[in-house]
What we know:
The protein is an alpha/beta fold.
Amino acid sequence: MTVPQVVVSPPVLSVVTPMYNEREAVDHFVARLRPVLDRLEVAYEVVAVDDGSSDATVARLLQLRTEWPQLRVVSLRRNVGHQTALAAGLRSARGDYVVSIDADLQDPPETIGEMLAAAREQGVDVVYGVRNDRSSDTVFKRRTAGAYYWMMRRLVGPWVSNQAGDFRLMSRAVVDVLNDLPEQRPVYRLVVPSLGFSSAEVTYVRAERVAGETKYPLSKMIKLTLDSVTSFSATPLRIATWLGLLSFLLCLGLMISGLVAWGFGATVPGWTSLYVAVLLLGGIQLICLGLLGEYIGRIYAAVQNRPQFLVAQDTADEVAFGAADVSTEELAGHR
């Protein structure tokens, strides 16, 4: 017997939330987000993208979905990282406007209404959430974030929004362009402003994480910075070129001074100068090879053209085809 397909009207607003081991925060997040969206009086959906969590995040989301039909659970087969999970959510979102927000409640859901109003009243395609107060962050976090945006504005371009992370609202036109880009490692805080769509800003005070541990430790912050630089600028390769030129001039000077000393008979057998020269040249060569390898690695990944993510479950498909909910045990069997 063929089950008739149910036609579901697209919502006006989609809220995309990447989640990774957020079991402790998910209840707090839903308790704050749902009243905000209900007060907007527009058709909406919440796309919760589980990024291969190892805790009970998916199980809890499926439980909450029984009481909140607008909640969609998109479960990925493995952990792919925050930005790629966000890409999965953007591809799944169906709304005319799409908001991306994290589940840790450092970005207030109450600002979504202000973003939607700004987009409609000003006729812009992007509304950035800009942090005007980061006092809840540690001094180290504030300093490193400030250094990141300072560097990005100089390497990538002045159009990079200062203190704007991944909390933003985008129109369907922007989302469609993002979904068509062949980016293997997207950094949306740089990609979105680089497209040149009309934009506005909404400021807010950044709060402390509601529960759990940060998903952006120092190692991931360094990786984000490296992806940001290599995806948008060839400056590291130019730096490698200048380092090579500088080392060549230095070695040329040492060679001339050595020949002059030999001509005057003032040469003294020794290892210090040779030792320093070898270390200098070896260090510069390794740095240049490392920088070159980062770009070649990205070219290699692009040529392979492997999928960035694989979806194990999307509860919207179950609604569309009249299927029953997938149990937690069945979901675990997909992984």
